[in-house]
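quick one, 447 residues, struct below
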Amino acid sequence: MEQQSTSVSPVRSGEPVVSGEGLRDQQVDLWEQEFSQGNLLIALKRVERNKGAAGVDGLQAQELRAWCQDHWAETRKSLDAGTYVPLPVRQVMIPKPDGGQRMLGVPSVLDRLIQQALAQVLSPIFDEGFVPVSYGFRPGKSAHDAAVVARTVMEQGYRWVVEVDLDAFFDRVNHDVLMSRVARKVKDRRVLKLIRKYLTAGIMAQGVRRETVEGTPQGSPLSPLLSNIMLDDFDQEFWSRGHRFVRYADDIRVFVKSKRAAERVLAQATKVLEQRLKLRVNRQKSVINPASVATLLGFGFYFVKGGQVRVRVASKAWLRMKRRIRDLTSRRWSVSMDYRIDELNKYVRGWMGYFRLAMTNRRFSDLDEWFRRRLRQIRWKEWKRPRTRVANLRRLGIAGQKAYEWGNSSRAYWRVAKSPILHRALPTSYWEDLGVMFFRRAWDRFQ
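---
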């Protein structure tokens, strides 16, 4: 392939990105393939589409294209010369479901562009060698695939599950161990040097830069690929031993036929992860459970007659969903009903889209009963005055005397919301006419 001029901007029209097969045959040209005009243009569009917050320099994703028109030639020269220095990532702490906090690292948009370009050409090189049961951050694979395989294996009689928990995995990745595994397939020293620079770019927290001697910050385009490269040794070891397992990023589940076998497998997994990969297994959270208790990526499992296994929503995921619905149907949230319904529908569609594998349609119907009661109490509060309540109840078909009695009731919102009168005045059809998407209806659409 012809070498690109260092003055070419990635935002101009360019050649199509080179396939992974071509790259594997042209390791000597890997650097040029990564920074080819076509590959950079695809990376730029992806960064723009993903949007995201600005890094430490304050440059926004929507400003990157114009910035590249003016400054890319200079950036490319420094990359080629090996003098390019990535900016430290901006630290952002987000709450975890268990009450703790997870650190996200937000790179600058320029570094996101470069890392995305790297990921696009490195992924095909590594992906073909990953085991089939590694499902995280890989093309054509998803959390649903992992859940389906887990269910299938359980039906085959593997009903004890080893749930391996890695303690702060993304924060504890050993750079030397990781780079030695990248170097198995990447021979271009410029590429290896650039990846190492991103690993050691540092973290900016409250205006203070902190060195990074281990870890790969979540939030960068390269991080998912690097995590799979890091854990591939574990995958290959357990795959070669014939274990039934699935892995999605740092979520590892191994399926065996007895508790005694599970204890042996947990010891083996701990040895590989800690001694070979220098990671840390969380002893308190790494557990052995019967299949009916184990969870995977928010899914749980249960058994029916004939030994068949069904998928359900795990308890913690169910509770998180109900907390979110409570927030969106809070009486203290003073927004219009139209806006509230729009936000509810976005959440219900997204949540149900993920949990559509759950085979618990009756439970979703019961959930909708509770959901409608939450909506009815909002409407009751909106009507406020007894006179307004009486008028609205009559308009909705409630006889005069009953409308008057309930309209002047002093009972609490939640109690009135369960009353037969409000059931009749505000039935399911009332909310569907307003456009509310209920869980059971959303589930039916996905089946």
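The first helix runs from residue 20 to 24.
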